[in-house]
């Protein structure tokens, strides 16, 4: 059986890696006024943060179901099955779009997977699935492996500016104002598919130290992990953090990724996070 792997743009897997592992990507959209851009296709993360400075924050939208249908029909010409891996169904309807499209296409079995997370941790699932698919592993075995990885997946992130969370309905206006005055950096994480506060920490430095400590708790268990540092237009800071953490945790393989246009809209420039899962 020949299996294709699909994910969406919020996995933020570099094009070279997608091409290497033959991962198909469906883009989400950011809308500035009347102009819609497909992230990772029409607008890069770097371009997005420049646009925001000029035009303010856009809105975001999931891919239309028809876009999934079109891709799945195309894949049906060459593949027997599709594993479609998406950002958490608690923050976007993208996963449900893949589910719906899967019921509308004949000649190919579509198995949607809710990562219950986003960004490059979601990307780790897609890369694992693609590597297994390249070896001819069955859909059932790949899906079981993804569920197994889910048990070890973690992600924590902080925002530099609370107003983005307030605008998106994550914080009340009063909390945003008080938080900004106190320099509070709320640590956030995914719980039951949605983004919720984990802890409130006073400064950026302490928040990053706390995230590193949480990784350390898992890394101390002795298993090998892959971890990704994720930044919103703070690449130099992310690379410095990677170098520091690589020296501390030799059993962790570190990557650097970014919050692209869609996730960056909700977190704002300066956000920083880290996610990991057991190898």
From TrEMBL:
Superkingdom of this protein's organism: Bacteria
SUPFAM superfamilies associated with the record: DAK1/DegV-like
InterPro entries: DegV (IPR003797), DegV_C (IPR043168), DegV_domain_contain (IPR050270)
Keywords: Lipid-binding
Keyword Transport: no
PANTHER family: DEGV DOMAIN-CONTAINING PROTEIN DR_1986-RELATED, FATTY ACID-BINDING PROTEIN TM_1468
Protein name: DegV family protein
Species annotation: Bacillus xiapuensis
